Amino acid sequence: MQRYILSRLFQSIMILFGVLFIIFFMLQATGDPVSLMVSRNASPEEIEAVREAMGFNRPLIVQFGDFIAGAVVGDFGDSLRHKQPAMDLILERLPATVELATTALFMAMLIGIPLGLLGGSNPGSLWDTLARGAGLIGQTIPNFWLALILIIVFAVKLGWLPAFGRETWQFLGITLPTRSVILPAFALGLFTMGQLVRFTRSAVMEIRSEDFVRTAYSKGLSDRQIYIRHILRNAAIPLISIIGVQFGYLLSGSIYIETICSWPGLGNLLAEAIGNRDFALVQAIAFFTSLVVVTLNLLTDIAYGLADPRIRYGD
Amino acid sequence: MADAAQTKGTGLLVDQEADQGLGAKLVYVGRLLWRDKSGLLGLIMFLTVVFSAVLAPWISPHPPLKQDLRAAKRPPVWAAKGDISHPLGTDNLGRDLLSRIIYGSRVSLTVGFFGVLIAGSLGLVIGLVSGYAGGRTDNVIMGGVNLILALPYLVFVVFIAAILGRSLINVILIFGFTDIPIFVRITRGEVLRLRESGFVESAKSIGAGRLRIIFDHILPNLLGPLITIATFEMSAMIFYEAGLGFLGLSVPPSVPSWGNMLATGRKYLTIYPWIATFPGLAIVFTGLGMNLFGDWLRDALDPRMRRLKR
After folding, report:
1. In this complex, which of A19, A140, A202 lies closest to B151 when CB atoms are compared?
2. What is the pLDDT of residue B30?
3. Which residue in B287, B292, B308 is closest to A202 by CB distance?
4. Which candidate in B41, B140, B147 is best for mutational testing of the A interface (most A CBs within 10 A)?
5. B211 near A CB under 8 A
6. Which of the four pLDDT bands, split at 50, 70 and 90, describes residue B4?
7. Which CATH superfamily is domain A79-314 in?
């Protein structure tokens, strides 16, 4: 198990170095990174000033070394627009995104897993039709359009939920979410809900036809026991990895929803940074979200290893 | 009729008829499609979009760029102030929404088609090399593939789009190149599986060379999984293109595209909700069609899936 964890850790670190490489050279891809950052009618002096300030007048290899050295300690330079360290801005916006992604994940799990179980254990039933429909809907409705429609229906027409912004509730010094998170979280979580339904349904269907389930039935175990001890336990293992991957997707994929609902998180910060051509901040966000996703994948793999003896001892 | 009865439930005939001519195969595929109505529905939906893209100049009621400020912000025909000359209403500049949606399908399908063509053909070649060469080459290629697949996709697509600027070619290239790893992984996995199969071993033992094995035995078997993945990836690209357009990072604002229309609609969301509603419905319609068809295709091409589905 230790060897398994160490090799996955090594892989993750290599991936993060790859990410730094990509992020750094992407800005160079157009030839002159300064041209991306200044307005079209900037004077030559202004251009030179930016070049100087960003250190683009130094040899590329020195710039890259500096970039890596900074990145390792979390320093991506200052945001051109906000005049403060990019990492500070990210950490300031992080709680809102975590709140949104966590709520979205919980909503998706709460609907997706039971629906997948019901559908998978009663193939051809009404539940199964519902599960297949939910799986398809999750895959075919783009979250940005869903958010717009939800705003029209639940905020404008019915007035049940606030459409824009984030409100929090302070309780004993802890920041708690309010109903302002419901609408954006539902829109964000729909795709994940669909994936969970599809996955749970097909896992249950597959496991139900295994020999050990038939043996369990012939031993005279009750449905309840068979479901809990044989079917759910086996379906849970691969479900862990789906949930891990989906959480990474939710944390890094909220740019549309945050923009539409004016949710003050990382996605919104990224959209703003792109609008302002603030590329130091864009680079920092790209690296930070990669770090989050890679770490989540690593944790998922470790959890998977702990839950599945074949991986624990096989490696 | 006897055939249909015989194969009902298993669809095994496809394996027996696989060696016959193209005509027989097509007839068989048609019969499979007829049996599974959701696959047929998906295909019809997708073809509707293709036809409207091809026939756009003849079926659009108005030119997509024509502004008519007197007819601006008109609701769809069934609403109180609707007007039959603009069936789905007009946008803030009085441009006809139905015509713009019809023309918008051109952008979506172009991006999806060429994106998948680039990603699929490069992915196929790289995957074949990776799976066949093995060893160090394979390690390097798969290292790159795993790196790209580990990135937060949306963040990087937005990043690249912001650097490259708004144009149709750029959008196609972004999706074409960032999607290569998906096709590499599928191709390589299939190659590794097929290499160990009985028929490749038989071909080897009668003295077939490497190229002949690849072209005669591996490639034909890769086609099924690759076409299935291509369907899903194309629908994903159509989504992502609309998303980029929505953020103002896809084709230039003057081009009628579903993403650009959504971006306009968002500004008027609370007062003129139909501007954002209809282009979104077009995206859902296309995605639904391709997913229904893709699901059917996957099951039809893979006998193992067929068993599970019943």
Report:
1. A19
2. 77
3. B308
4. B147
5. no
6. very low
7. MetI-like (1.10.3720.10)
Report if residue B44 sits inside a domain. Answer: no
Q: In B86-197, which residue ranges form alpha helices assigned H by DSSP?
A: 97-133, 135-150, 153-164, 168-178, 180-195
Q: How many domains does chain B have?
A: 1
Q: What is the pLDDT of residue B289?
A: 93
Contact A292, A248 (CB under 8 A): yes
pLDDT of residue B11: 44
**A172 CA: distance to closest CA in chain B (Å):** 35
Query: How would you class B276 by CB atoms within 10 Å of its CB: exposed for 0-12, middle for 13-18, buried for 19 or more?
Result: buried
Write the ipTM.
0.83
Selecting from B152, B164, B243 the residue whose C-beta is nearest the C-beta of A290 gives B152
Which CATH number belongs to the domain containing residue B98 in this structure? Answer: 1.10.3720.10
Distances, alpha carbon B219 to alpha carbons B29, B44, B198, B223, B224, in Å: 20, 28, 16, 6, 10
**φ and ψ of A201, to 5 deg:** -60, -50
Query: Chain B: residue nearest A271 by CA?
Result: B247
Provide the residue ranges of all domains of chain A, joining segments of one domain with +. 79-314
> Is B252 a member of any domain?
yes
CB atoms within 10 A of CB B217: 18
**Mean of all residue pLDDT scores within chain A:** 84
Quote the domain boundaries for residue B264. 56-293
pTM: 0.84
Residues 6+ apart with CB under 8 A from A258: A97, A100, A184, A264, A265, A266, A267, A268, A271
Strand pairing partners for B234? none
pLDDT value at position A310?
A: 73
State how far the Cα of A99 lies from the Cα of A265, in Å rounded to an integer.
9
Q: How many CB pairs under 8 A join A and B?
A: 120
Q: What is the mean pLDDT of residues B171-192?
A: 92
Q: Classify residue B253: in a domain, yes or no.
A: yes
Q: Rounded distance, CA B240 to CA A231, Å?
A: 36
pLDDT reported for residue A308: 75
**Nearest in space to B91 (alpha carbons), one of B102, B100, B103, B78:** B100
Q: Which of A5-9, B5-9, B204-208 has the lowest mean pLDDT?
A: B5-9
Inter-chain touch A156–B308, beta carbons under 8 Å: no
Residue B39 maps to a domain: no
Contacts with A205 from chain B: Cβ below 8 Å: 308
User: What residues of chain B lie within 8 A of the CB of A140, using their CB?
Assistant: 235, 284, 287-288, 291
Minimal Cβ distance to B270: which of A144, A156, A205: A156
Check residue B32 and give its pLDDT. Answer: 74
Chain A contact for B268 (CB, 8 A cutoff): no
B308:A271 CB<8 A = no
Q: What CA–CA distances, in Å, run from B145 to A85, B117, B155?
A: 32, 18, 17
